[in-house]
Amino acid sequence: MAGRLQRVAAIERLTATEREAVKFLEVTLKQAARFIRAMQRHADGAAVALIAALAYAN
After folding, report:
1. For 40-54, what is each residue's pLDDT tens digit?
2. Where are the domains of the chain?
3. C-alpha distance from residue 19 to each of 13, 16, 58 (Å)
4. Could you read off the pLDDT of 3-39 as tens digits, one per residue?
5. Are the CB atoms for 2 and 30 separated by under 8 Å?
6. Contact 32, 1 (CB under 8 A)
7. What is the value of pTM for the model shown?
8. Spatial distance between the Cα atoms of 5 and 25, rounded to a whole number of angstroms
């Protein structure tokens, strides 16, 4: 999803503020994905399901 956001931002004409907001979203999505992957490696199935549900609900 972060990659899609990055591609759309590259195509669209954005103001400096909009580019900054898009970059913030991109970084946030990448960090969330890393967090979920880390939790999947170190948690049991129930905890992973809960974390994933919370992450996708927001």
Report:
1. 777 666 677 777 788
2. 2-57
3. 9, 5, 22
4. 776 777 777 788 889 888 988 988 998 899 888 888 7
5. yes
6. no
7. 0.58
8. 8
